[in-house]
Amino acid sequence: DQELRQHMEAKFLDVQRDYEKLSFASKSIQKDSQQKQGEIEMLIQSLEKLQKEKADQQNMMAAMDMKADKAALASKINGNQFEANMERLDERMQELQSQISGQEQHWNNTQQQLSLVEEKKLDRIELKTFRDQMEETWNRNIEELENRMLRENAAGYKK
Where in this chain does the entry annotate a coiled-coil region (predicted)? Predict the structure, then answer.
């Protein structure tokens, strides 16, 4: 019976440790999620800024085409350098878009993990019910042990 009690205490401590681990994991996931959300917002702002600059550059090019002679424009701007810069800008935009989609995937995975943790987490009512059942079983076992010891002692005296 003492082994059973120790076993039950060990199980209860295991459940308590698991609960603490889950609590720590959920806090860590939530903190990571907030950090990732901040990074996503920064990336979105950078993307919007780059898109605005690209739109401004396109408007400028359209205005220059209407006002300036293409030969005069070619002498003022190096075409190869402009093309290289535009390619780098386009590559950077694609990198930012892939980073944003990667962050969104990570955010979704984090939310799924948090949902799983919440589903597996025992609430206080379940723990109270479990504790009450454990105490009842424990008290019943102790009473049975005491009764058995009294019977055995009484039988020993009679012999």
Answer: 33-106
- The confidence score (pLDDT) of residue 157 equals 47
Token digits for 146?
A: 């005491």
Pairwise CA distance, residues 45 & 66, whole Å: 32
> With b meaning 16 or more CB within 10 Å and e meaning fewer, what string describes 82-116?
eeeeeeeeeeeeeebeeebeebeeebeebeeebee
Give, in order, the Cα–Cα distances in Å from 22 to each of 15, 118, 122, 125. 10, 9, 10, 17
- pLDDT tens, residue by residue, 24-70: 999 999 999 999 999 999 999 998 888 888 767 777 777 777 776 55
Q: What residue has token string 């025992």?
A: 122
User: Cβ contacts of residue 99 below 8 Å, gap of 6+?
Assistant: 43
Distance between CA atoms of residues 91 and 23, nearest Å: 42
Convert the pLDDT of each residue in 62-120 to its tens digit.
777 777 655 565 566 677 887 888 888 888 888 878 877 777 787 778 777 777 776 77
